[in-house]
């Protein structure tokens, strides 16, 4: 900002007009983003602050909240249902995230080839990612039906008696893992873009040196799409811990389908323990945040090691 005292009359007018134009631009910009900030404040920030307060209270929804301090968090340490939901969610994430990444990457490799009707195949693989979670749950309820389900009927044709799937505690986790592969097309798109950006010269040079297809995948493609791998890993972990829609519809025998978000929902809206559910939510947030930070630290360490080797 220039000092107006040191300017002549024409320069003062130019400087004032310049400042006026800047203010006008700022005001227009703030006007456009004001609806977003208003919605974020009303529907995200305020509920978060209220949830922090409620986590220190005993609030049965009907009636006034009673301040209990850290008692809700202390009770979580001995809550078997909460520990079971964390264990179920962690097991699901540990199995489904790697399998989902492998499936997405494999499909992306196939889609990156010069196959006829490629655009049609890409659309078909991506469609499940945009289907409503409720609709997906209803579809898989029929697929996993022990008596008239699609999978067991197909197995019966070749003389195999299918399992009870979601009605058998042993098969609940495999059922949800199979369901998770349904949405592999979402990750496929990000891999596909990165694979197509790999320079063709690298593949040609590797071919001249005698490198086969799978060797080129491990030595050229995977290092090139490393950042996308990390992105999908983190998003996959967050998505696995946020599993709710189909679990709410399908459930699972022996509480093996009681994921953490479903446990929080039942605590708040079935048992009307809103304060206790808020405490669960914040503990859940800290767990997911900690896992994400560990992945980030591992990623930074691995990249640093790779750079030193190079």
Shape estimate: globular
Strand content: under 5%
- Helix-strand topology string: HEEHHHHHHHHHHHHH
Q: End-to-end distance, in Å? A: 48 Å
Instruction: Write down how many β-strands occur, each being a DSSP E stretch of 2 or more residues.
Output: 2
**Largest beta-sheet details:** 2 strands, antiparallel
Rg result: 27 Å
Estimate percent helicity: over 70%
Query: Poorly predicted ranges (pLDDT <50, ≥5 residues)?
Result: none
Structural class: mainly alpha
Order of strands, widest sheet: 1-2
Residue-averaged pLDDT: 84
- Our count of helices gives 14
Question: How would you characterize this protein structure?
Answer:
With 310 residues, the protein is an all-alpha fold. It is 74% helix and 1% strand. It is built from 14 helices and two strands; from the N terminus they run αββααααααααααααα. Strands 1-2 form a two-stranded antiparallel sheet. Strand 1 and strand 2 form a beta hairpin. Helix 3 packs parallel to helix 7 and helix 3 packs across helix 8. The protein is globular and about 75 Å long. It starts with 8 loop residues before the first helix and ends with a helix. The mean pLDDT is 84.
């Amino acid at each position: 900002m220039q000092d107006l005292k040191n300017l002549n009359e024409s320069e003062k007018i130019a400087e004032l007009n310049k400042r006026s134009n800047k203010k006008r631009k700022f005001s227009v910009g703030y006007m456009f983003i004001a609806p977003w900030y208003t919605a974020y404040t009303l529907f995200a920030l305020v509920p978060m602050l209220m949830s922090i307060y409620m986590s220190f209270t005993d609030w049965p929804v009907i009636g006034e909240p009673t301040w209990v301090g850290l008692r809700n968090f202390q009770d979580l340490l001995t809550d078997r249902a909460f520990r079971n939901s964390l264990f179920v969610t962690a097991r699901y994430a540990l199995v489904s995230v790697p399998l989902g990444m492998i499936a997405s990457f494999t499909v992306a490799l196939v889609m990156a080839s010069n196959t006829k009707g490629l655009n049609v195949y890409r659309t078909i693989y991506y469609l499940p990612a945009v289907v409503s979670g409720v609709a997906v749950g209803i579809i898989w309820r029929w697929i996993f039906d022990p008596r008239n389900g699609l999978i067991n009927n197909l197995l019966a044709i070749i003389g195999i008696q299918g399992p009870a799937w979601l009605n058998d505690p042993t098969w609940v986790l495999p059922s949800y893992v199979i369901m998770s592969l349904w949405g592999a097309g979402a990750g496929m798109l990000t891999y596909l873009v990165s694979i197509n950006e790999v320079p063709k010269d690298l593949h040609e040079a590797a071919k001249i040196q005698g490198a086969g297809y799978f060797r080129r995948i491990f030595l050229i493609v995977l290092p090139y799409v490393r950042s996308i791998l990390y992105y999908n890993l983190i998003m996959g972990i967050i998505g696995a811990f946020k599993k709710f829609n189909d679990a709410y519809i399908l459930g699972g025998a022996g509480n093996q389908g009681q994921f953490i978000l479903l446990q929080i929902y039942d605590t708040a809206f079935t048992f009307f323990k809103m304060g206790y559910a808020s405490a669960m939510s914040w503990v859940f947030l800290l767990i997911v945040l900690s896992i994400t930070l560990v992945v980030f630290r591992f990623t930074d360490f691995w990249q640093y090691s790779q750079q030193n080797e190079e």
